[in-house]
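We close this part of the discussion by returning to an individual protein. Part of our work consisted of pairing the sequence of a single chain with a tokenised description of its backbone. No coordinates are needed to read the tokens, only the vocabulary itself. The amino acid sequence and the backbone structure tokens for this protein are reproduced below:
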Amino acid sequence: MDTGGLPVLDQRIAGCRACPRLVDWREEVARTKRAAFTDWTYWGRPVPGFGPDDASLLIVGLAPAAHGGNRTGRMFTGDRSGDVLYQALYDVGLASQPTAVSADDGLELHGVRVTSPVHCAPPANKPTPAERDTCRPWLVRELELLRPTLRAVVVLGAFGWQAALPAFAGAGWTVPRPRPAFAHGRQVTLDAAEGPALRLFGCFHVSQRNTFTGRLTPEMLREVLRTAADAAGLPTR
């Protein structure tokens, strides 16, 4: 996939129409909207990654939320999961502000990029295996473009973990066999035939189900982010 640099890749992702079910769903949500957002013009397209193109730390989620990223056009922006993630990034010094409400709100990430293995909002937040696999080349290319600076990755949730491992392999890192299972706090080192190894960290997803029940607390999230940032050579507070 010859897509140039990350800005070009992001543009190509935003124009993708490869999965008919996801295209229909994201556009239907953008038309019907949620009552609280009737004045919004929804993005209604695939949501590309967000963050600098020389990031040393990557955060991999699941997919955009129907009324979050699918509305605002930016990863984890405009929903409660994003509220938790960006607050934690701000708390540890990796984001310029603790809130993410729109794509033009001035938020900047420091050495961190946020992406997902599926770029369209899926019905019931559940992409099919075929949709996951169809979207994988985008993540592989994103990893290839980040490879000169990328040193650590935080993967949020088991779906993201399972979807990302083949992408790491496709981008040139060696994934152990058998593949390491997901767990919160799990740490795996992925060696490479050329260049430095990649440190992989598992973290429970920042979903409302996990944060409202206390399965994932703010301190648990901050701890994973600080550990991963240290592995990536990023300063934290």
About this structure: The chain has a mean pLDDT of 96.
